[in-house]
């Protein structure tokens, strides 16, 4: 990796009482690239995400986000609300967290709440239907409609999110995150529970998001997705980094095969092969 970094994690440590979930972890994510964080269950991946997105305050280390204009933001000093708003880091969760009773379109409108609140003068201009607010609302609907189209859910715009098929809900979550127009999109196991066809569609969607210029940080167990779309892979085990590199480098690394996939070499090879 030699390019332009959007995210630098430097000696990140996270302890829970006596448990060291992440220890001295350093890695970087390049701008407009897909960086994957992989590792066996309990390796510490979600804890890293929670530190980056402000859900946890790290016990030690630094997390820096550098915007296109050169502004550097120390994420470990901000709470989750400011990380989303100021640093423009968006995330999805392992378990889907849509508003199930709201329509697909409404879920994407809620994601644009901050911009709409500003345009409404924090209520009054919205209440009287001022032109500035109506224009902002139109732009928000256009953006939401655009994303519904991109995730192939335009015909489901008025259906309750909770009534959508599981794979559709996963894509709607990504669309919702994209409606915040993030600089860095963090996805926690977006392919979990998807069938092969849905995983392939997800890979295509994530590549198109990257090609449009959004940087992506991805936690994923589905090796076919990871190996197909990642530009760079960081491998963790027991809270530390054990390897990093291109998909090919990581796939061929004996440390990864042994430590990440356990001691059963046949099984390890089979899982890695599923991504080749
Ligand atoms: N809030 C918490 N309190 C105590 N221990 C925690 C907490 N969150 C995570 N841990 C512990 O930290 C370690 C790393 O967990 P983490 O969820 O980050 O791993 P992971 O790599 O995301 O695993 P998985 O792939 O199963 O989601 C585990 O031992 C876990 O039990």
From TrEMBL:
A UniProt-annotated Pfam family: ABC_tran
CDD domains, per the entry: ABC_Mj1267_LivG_branched
Function: Involved in beta-(1-->2)glucan export. Transmembrane domains (TMD) form a pore in the inner membrane and the ATP-binding domain (NBD) is responsible for energy generation.
Organism: Bradyrhizobium arachidis
Keywords: Amino-acid transport, ATP-binding, Nucleotide-binding, Transport
Protein name as catalogued: ABC transporter ATP-binding protein
Superkingdom assignment: Bacteria
GO biological process: D-alanine transmembrane transport; L-alanine transport; L-isoleucine import across plasma membrane; L-valine import across plasma membrane
GO cellular component: plasma membrane
Listed PANTHER family: CONSERVED COMPONENT OF ABC TRANSPORTER FOR NATURAL AMINO ACIDS-RELATED, HIGH-AFFINITY BRANCHED-CHAIN AMINO ACID TRANSPORT ATP-BINDING PROTEIN LIVG
Annotated family: Belongs to the ABC transporter superfamily.
């Amino acid at each position: 990796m030699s390019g332009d970094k959007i995210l630098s994690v430097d000696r990140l440590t996270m302890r829970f009482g006596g448990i060291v979930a992440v220890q001295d972890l350093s890695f970087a994510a390049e701008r407009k690239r897909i960086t994957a964080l992989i590792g066996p269950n309990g390796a510490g991946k979600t804890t890293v995400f929670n530190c980056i997105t402000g859900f946890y305050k790290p016990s030690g280390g630094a997390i820096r986000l550098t915007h296109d204009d050169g502004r550097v933001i120390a994420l470990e000093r901000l709470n989750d609300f400011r990380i989303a708003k100021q640093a423009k880091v968006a995330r999805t969760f392992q378990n889907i967290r849509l508003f199930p009773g709201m329509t697909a379109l409404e879920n994407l409108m809620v994601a644009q709440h901050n911009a709409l609140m500003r345009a409404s003068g924090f209520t009054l201009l919205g209440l009287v239907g001022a032109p500035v607010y109506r224009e902002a609302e139109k732009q928000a609907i256009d953006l939401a409609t655009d994303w519904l189209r991109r995730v192939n859910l335009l015909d489901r715009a008025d259906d309750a999110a909770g009534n959508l098929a599981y794979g559709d809900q996963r894509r709607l979550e990504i669309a919702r995150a994209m409606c915040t127009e993030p600089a860095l999109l963090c996805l926690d196991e977006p392919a979990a529970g998807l069938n092969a066809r849905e995983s392939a569609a997800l890979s295509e969607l994530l590549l198109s998001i990257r090609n449009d210029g959004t940087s992506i940080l991805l936690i994923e167990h589905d090796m076919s997705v990871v190996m197909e779309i990642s530009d760079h892979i960081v491998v963790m085990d027991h809270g530390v980094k054990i390897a990093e590199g291109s998909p090919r480098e990581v796939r061929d690394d004996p440390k990864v095969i042994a430590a990440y996939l356990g001691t059963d070499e046949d099984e390890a090879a089979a899982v890695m092969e599923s991504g080749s």
